[in-house]
Specification:
With about 550 residues, this protein is of the alpha/beta class. Helices cover about 45% and strands about 10% of the residues. The strands form 3 sheets. A 7-stranded mixed sheet has the order 3-2-6-1-7-8-9, with helices on both faces.
Length: about 550
């Protein structure tokens, strides 16, 4: 970035400091000077400002960089001995760089929406909502993000000299999560376990045979044999994919942290990159190899997100909703909505730690973006670790880039119907997670009060809508590509009535485009926003469910 742009960033930092007082001035001056001293990493400032008429912002974030999982001590003891202690945190915990990445996300949100969000401390009027999946690193990541938005000096006077702004964070319930982590902490655990076992049985030996030399090279460096059928942990047999993922993550996290992933030169960076590509393919195949797996990983999140985009808003005071989770939810949401995952300097279809998918809600549609943290050089991060300098000095606003869903165009507002159509068509093919996971007979989850039944059926069942016409605006019809010739060829009547276009079924053929109209009807009042709801599907028990949190 050229020096004049850096000077502008310095001015922004000083303006932000004035907002928060003396302590803010000290922090922001330090950040701005540090930024001018390091290499350019790309900036959120390079993307257009929000459009006039912004109504709401929805953020789906990933946790920041972290330490490797505990099994690294078994599956790569050399790394555990020589590199793991340098993270300075417990295994699987958010690292210094990870905290800085999520903190930067909060800084970015405060900066980009400085004219939209109210100034000053956290308010308890429903303006902000922070919701985290219950894993410790996710909760800490959410706290770091909130700290970026509400730094020291902005909180309650008379509590502590630093005036910290302590922000409430809601989270999920053990074993009953259908919003954030349905297949690992909700009613789809059995389905995920079954699908993983099937994939491992069908693929693991073959992939190992294809890349046996690569696995032997990494095994020699780690001091542990990464071979199918030879891995045990705490007395239990474990698949190669499980162990290889732990090693892959360890290398990636170390590289991002400014540590030595080569373990003193035992592996080349080229070998690590090759290993990462192979193992990431294995992990994605195991978790997302079949379309129905993507559906149960998404759970109730997309209907919930689309409910929050419904204009007019039920509670206009709710301006910012932050959901923070593991990578899997962002990954499947992007795939269902047809958003390509491409970040500069990152392998295609991979998500950098600390990244976010951001949805801006307007009266006439949505704008979607990917945000990613700054990428200070490995050299700078290593230097800061060695000298124990504050890592956040290397981070400021990160990088914002457009995210274009299927059916939408660059630089244009995206109709909500386009996103709904993508979701409806995907789940129409796979079935809902409720059917995939046979949730209605998973009675052990119901006692915990949050397992949901049937909500997605209303999104994908066209019968009652096909029996009557569903009105949509001409702009919406054009957005989903429905022409009169298309309607005729698909067996749908298509007639003009005043200012609206009526779409109705002329025979019993279920059709893709009629489903888009279903989405519009739902989004404008048929189902509303679903968090707490009454369950009941077919022969399953009738259960009253409790809300996660009232966001809208």
């Amino acid at each position: 970035m050229a020096f004049p742009a850096r000077a502008i960033l310095l001015i922004h930092a000083m303006s932000f400091a004035a907002m928060w007082g003396a302590s803010g001035r000290l922090v922001c001056c330090s950040l701005a000077l540090a930024w001018c001293a390091v290499a350019s990493h790309g900036h959120a400032d390079d993307v257009d400002e929000p459009l006039p008429g912004l109504k709401r912002v929805i953020v789906l974030s990933r946790h920041g960089n972290r330490a490797p999982n505990p099994q690294i001590e078994v599956v790569c003891p050399v790394f555990a001995r020589e590199v793991l202690p340098m993270f300075g945190v417990a295994p699987a915990a958010l690292s210094r760089v990870g905290m800085a990445e999520n903190w930067e996300n909060g800084q970015f949100l405060r900066h980009r929406y400085r004219h939209f969000l109210p100034h000053g401390p956290y308010s308890y009027d429903g303006t902000f909502a922070f919701f985290s999946e219950r894993a410790e690193r996710n909760i800490v990541s959410t706290a770091a993000l909130a700290r970026g938005m509400f730094p020291d000096g902005s909180g309650l006077e008379g509590f502590a000299k630093e005036r910290p702004n302590i922000v409430p964070i809601a989270t999920t319930q053990d074993g009953a999560d259908v919003l954030m982590n349905c297949p690992r902490d909700g009613p789809c655990q059995r389905a995920l376990s079954r699908d993983k076992k099937a994939w491992i049985s069908e693929n693991e030996e073959r992939i190992y045979a294809q890349h046996s030399q690569l696995f032997r090279t990494v095994s020699a460096a780690c001091g542990f044999a990464l071979e199918p059928g030879k891995i045990t942990y705490k007395g239990k047999s474990k698949p190669l994919t499980w162990a290889a993922k732990a090693v892959m993550d360890a290398f990636s996290f170390a590289q991002n942290e400014g540590l030595d992933p080569t373990m003193g030169g035992r592996l080349s960076l080229a070998t690590i990159e090759e290993f990462h590509a192979v193992v990431e393919g294995m992990v994605n195949g195991m978790n997302f190899g079949k379309p129905h797996q993507i559906t149960y990983w998404a759970g109730d999140f997309i209907p919930t997100m689309l409910g929050l985009t419904r204009v007019p808003l039920q509670q206009p005071a709710n301006k910012l909703h932050v959901f923070l989770n593991h990578r899997e939810l962002i990954y499947v949401v992007a795939h269902i909505l047809g958003v390509p995952i491409e970040f500069p300097g990152v392998a295609k279809d991979s998500l950098p730690s600390g990244c976010s998918l951001i949805v801006e809600v307007y009266d006439e549609g949505l704008r979607l973006f990917f945000w990613s943290p700054s990428q200070p050089s490995w050299k700078h991060k290593a230097k800061y670790l060695k000298k124990q300098k504050p890592m956040l000095e290397l981070f400021r606003h990160g990088r914002l880039q457009p995210a274009i869903p299927a059916g939408c165009g660059l630089g244009k507002l995206c109709p909500v119907e386009a996103l709904a159509l993508s979701f409806i068509e995907f789940v129409r093919i796979t079935g809902t997670y409720v059917k995939i996971c046979n949730v209605s007979v998973e009675e052990t989850y119901f006692a915990k009060g949050e397992a949901s039944l049937g909500i997605m059926e209303h999104w994908v069942e066209p019968t009652m809508f096909l029996k009557r016409g569903v009105n949509t605006t001409p702009r919406s019809a054009a957005a989903i590509g429905l022409t009169r010739d298309d309607a005729t060829s698909l067996g749908i009547s298509f007639a003009e009535k005043g200012a609206h276009t009526t779409i109705g079924a002329s025979n019993d053929t279920p059709v893709l485009f009629a489903l888009a109209a279903v989405a519009f009807s739902l989004l404008t009042g048929c189902i509303g926003f679903w968090f707490g709801k009454h369950a009941g599907q077919g022969q399953g028990p009738s259960v009253t469910t409790a809300p996660y949190v009232q966001l809208s």
